[in-house]
Amino acid sequence: TPISSPDLSTCAQGTNLNTQQPLDVNCCPPFSDKIIDYKLPHAAHLRLRPAAHLATEEYIAKYEKATELMKALPDDDPRSFMQQANVHCAYCNLTYDQTGDPSEKLQIHNCWHFYPWHRWYLYFYERILGKLIDDPTFAIPFWNWDNPDGMAIPAMFVKENSPLNDERRSQTHLPPSPADLLYSSTAKTDPNIIIPTNLTEMYGEMVRNVSNVEDFYGAKYVVGTAPDPGPGTVERGSHTALHVWVGDPRSPAGEDMGNFYSTARDPIFYSLHANVDRLWSVWRGLRGSKPKEFKEADWLNASFVFYDENAQLVRVRVKDTLEDVKMGFSYQKVELPWLDKRP
Ligand code: C2O
Questions:
Q1: Cβ neighbours of 258 (radius 10 Å)
Q2: Is the Cβ–Cβ distance between 73 and 140 less than 8 Å?
Q3: What's the whole-number average pLDDT of the chain?
Q4: Is residue 163 predicted with pLDDT exceeding 80?
Q5: 331 CA distance to ligand 1 centroid (A)?
Q6: Residue 66 · residue 129 · CB < 8 Å
Q7: What region, left, alpha or beta, does residue 49 occupy, with left being phi > 0 and alpha being psi -120 to 50 degrees?
Q8: Which atom of ligand 1 is least distant from the CA of 91?
Q9: If exposure means fewest CB atoms within 10 Å of the residue's CB, which of 134, 253, 271, 297 is most exposed?
Q10: Residues 249-267: what's their mean pLDDT?
């Protein structure tokens, strides 16, 4: 049976997955049982997500304004910045029972729902921001960390007093340090080593280490599966390394970016994930006639719930996430400098 949308009334205290202790924050969303089955609206205008390092001043001002308005919404508004951050916590930190098997918890990471779930999450986050500034074409920026020109934390996220900044970040990894996509406790510091190693890593995650669909997406996860059956290449590799690399070693457990419950409190989270999402689209484009997704109903029919830009609770399905353009967004075209980086 596919994973189906959680019953919000089962949301309970979660687990801090870095410490394995009970979570000391409540990240359950405001309750509602009025759920509408979401239909993708006809998109009159495409939202074109720009590379963050190429974004114009005008765009940055717009994004700052929208984020400021989101941060100013009342705390109990499901569209407020903190409630949006908590969406990630609730779907990750074992707060929900699996619908159909209360003995197992719901965790959308480290399994085949990683890409579709995050795509929906960004989708509503972007629509809420766009609504707040009354711009139906507003699109979130992506952090182009698979390109040497975009590997550092993009400048818009480190401006003083910007709503896009966050104090809880590693102070030794601020720009111009290029992100280390293989970051671990033994840190490399020489950009001349980090950059080529990153490109080889991306080639591995996107091409060399992917022989079948599951390698890329992650392992099967259905009702009754224990959390974390196994991540795909990008989730396991560059994606997780970046979370830890941005997170603040001075905070108790990797906060903000390096801990699941707090990661989406850092606005850069949404740009890290916009790039993960973009890489999903890129990967599909590279597949040619090879399968681009699972054909099993257990994947396609899985569902989640989110609050939309009108604060309406909606049920969404994995099968509606396959084409970004059908969802009304796309990505600025940039080069793929890792594509010829066979080790
Ligand atoms: Cu939901 Cu990058 O984790």
A1: 24
A2: no
A3: 96
A4: yes
A5: 19
A6: yes
A7: beta
A8: 1
A9: 134
A10: 97
CA–CA separation, 274 and 280 (whole Å): 10
Cα distance between residue 157 and residue 268, in whole Å: 7
* Å from CA of 298 to ligand 1 middle: 22
User: How far does Cα 276 stand from its chain's mean position?
Assistant: 7
Q: What is the residue whose two structure tokens read 């991540």?
A: 231
* Tokens linked to 195: 């950059």
45 given a catalytic annotation: no
**pLDDT tens across 133-156, in order?**
999 999 999 999 999 999 999 999
Q: Is the pLDDT of residue 189 over 90?
A: no
Q: How would you classify residue 214: left for phi > 0, otherwise alpha for psi between -120 and 50, otherwise beta?
A: alpha
What architecture is the 8-331 domain classified under in CATH?
Answer: Orthogonal Bundle (1.10)
In tens, the pLDDT along 60-113 reads: 999 999 999 999 999 999 999 999 999 999 999 999 999 999 999 999 999 999
| 88 tagged catalytic | yes
243 belongs to the catalytic site: yes
Amino acid at 80: S
pLDDT digits (tens, 9 = 90+) for 19-32: 999 999 999 999 99
Phi/psi region, residue 328 (left: phi>0; alpha: psi -120 to 50; beta: rest), is left
The residue ranges of every structural domain in the chain are: 8-331
